[in-house]
Amino acid sequence: MATKILVVDDEEDVADLLGQRFRHKIKDGTYDFRFAESGQQALTLMQNEPDFDVLLLDINMPDINGLTLLSRLPELMPLSRAVIVSAYGDMDNIRTAMNRGAFDFVCKPINFLDLDATIEKTAQHVQQLREAAQVKMMAELKTHFFDNITHEFRTPLTLILAPVAGLLQLPDLPESLRPDLLTVERNARQLLYLINQLLELARLEAGQLRVAVQPGPLSDYLQELVAGFQALARQRGITLTYDAQLPGTWLYDAEKVAHIAYNLLANALKFMPPLAGEPAPDARRQVTVHLSGSPELVRLAVADTGVGISAANLPRIFDRFYQAAPGATQLPVGSGIGLALVRELTTLMGGQVSVQSSTTPPTGTTFVVELPLQPALASEPATLGTAAPDWLPVPIPVPPAPDLPSGHAPDSPLIMLIEDNEELRTYLARQLAPMYRVLAAANGAEGWQLIQQELPDVVVSDVMMPELDGYELTYRIKNTPATDHVAVVLLTAQGTHSQRLTGLRQGADEYLTKPFHLEELVLRLHNILVRQQRLRTLYGQQLSRPELSQPTETVQNGWLRSLYEVLEKHLDDPELNVERLADQLAMSRKTLLRKVQALTHLAPSELIQQYRLRKAADLLRAGHSVADTAYAVGFNTPAYFGQCFKDLYQLTPSEFSAAPTPQP
């Protein structure tokens, strides 16, 4: 893009001279010159075309001199810069020009090499100014957008929180509704806090956030904030301690300090490994908050004994929206907002934050925030209280999952829920329990173990999970012979077209995007289970209705076809039993039992017998004798064969041979 240059000079030959000297740069579009022979003419051009990059101004002109014109430049073209080109190169003129905002000064007679270098340097500076202005404008637009969107969010959130609070106060509120209402309240407050954090980041980026200090009891203030986390810590079996060695009244920005402390504490508790057993305070599961300092520097340290942060992730944890790769830890990934806000608020207050962490025993992470705070003077009474700001979401513990109904028949469909958000997992389990048997797991690895053990009918899984994500879990389910019949519903916040395709390519049967309607999930589960039941009925009829085609010719399930092939190979072997069949299929007896029941509603022993009898029907129709048929399909005696055949087909083998062949 050409550098647009306005030359203001009353000498008649200046246009021809510059046109000749810079003809190559004019021709290739590097420079675009415009000329004015007086200050007034230049003023008109500046008003009509305020996009000049560089002005070359003479000082001595008949109407408006160059120095006067220079003083108008910030008003008319604030992002342009002027170079004085004049024969009046004495120190007084140079000083006056520079004081009025000139970027540089070139003396006449002109050294054109020097002028060319000066124009390039000035144009680069103008480009930097415009880029900075563009960044600032975008930041201001972003802040304005976040201001507006925050307002738009606050109104519906208020209309959620206020009625919910009112309902929770009702004396006759059914206890069955209280858990769901508390879940709504907790998550609405958390959503409001996330919105506030995004707004703070936008204001920081736009330079609109200011530090406003007031005197207050900093130690007591943080103690109240830490106390708000105690119930949550106890529920998770974590010992949370607060140690303060900073008495007196201090000058600090309470809102920003609260943001910093809250995020560090929430982070420490969130990334503590879950307990396998009953929660109880454990000396090995600690989060410690330590406050100390001197009259020049206050030090806040938050240390935990959690899993630690890997060396690969440590340099980037303060980056905005940075998240560790799924599966990189045994814990859920965060939003990438909290720690970025901690660093930027700390920097805004003139402090610094550091982190030390280890992922090898002893594991743990320590964040240290150092702030240059001052003690309040004796004449400055405390104006800040000790209560945490009301916009902070109260870290209320998630209530334990209720006992699910157990009145189902043993053959009721089994649903496996895999979701790392405890509240959502509990909610879904509570909603599905009246209809199905329900198992739940907090992550993909735990879920995979249970799937192999229990062989559920349907798996409902999140995608973004620690240790093993939903995509990989789906791939394992669909590519493991023992589990390939299990249906998978992916339930996730990743709802783009490419993400949906990824899930479906791994073999997912359904893909639902959060937020979802519970009724839709229930209907999709119902439809999947109906399809599964129809297939079971079909596979059963292929054995119980001899007029239908051979099972090996029509069966849709690849594993079941493999099982039939093993039975066909050992058809005349009376010693083939469930144990030997499991060995042939390289799976445990228990897995074989669950797999066969899931596909056919038959026990493996029943399936073996019915397959033999189905083959016997074909042999009898082909003219084989009853005795030959009995031995050919693995029965030791024709009498026992005849009894089993009549039990299944309601005809003796002889009657079946004589009867006309029924049409399918």
TrEMBL record:
- Location of the Response regulatory domain: 4-123, 414-529
**Which residues in this protein are found as 4-aspartylphosphate?**
D58, D462
The residue ranges of the Histidine kinase domain are: 148-375
The record's keywords, sorted A to Z, are: DNA-binding, Phosphoprotein, Transcription, Transcription regulation
Membrane-spanning segments: none
What this protein catalyses is: ATP + protein L-histidine = ADP + protein N-phospho-L-histidine
Database matches in InterPro entries? CheY-like_superfamily, HATPase_C_sf, HATPase_dom, His_kinase_dom, HisK_dim/P_dom, HisK_dim/P_sf, Homeodomain-like_sf, HTH_AraC
- What SMART domains does this protein map onto? HATPase_c (SM00387), HisKA (SM00388), HTH_ARAC (SM00342), REC (SM00448)
SUPFAM superfamilies hit by this protein: ATPase domain of HSP90 chaperone/DNA topoisomerase II/histidine kinase, CheY-like, Homeodomain-like, Homodimeric domain of signal transducing histidine kinase
List each coiled-coil range: none
Q: What is this protein called?
A: histidine kinase
**Organism for this UniProt entry:** Hymenobacter yonginensis
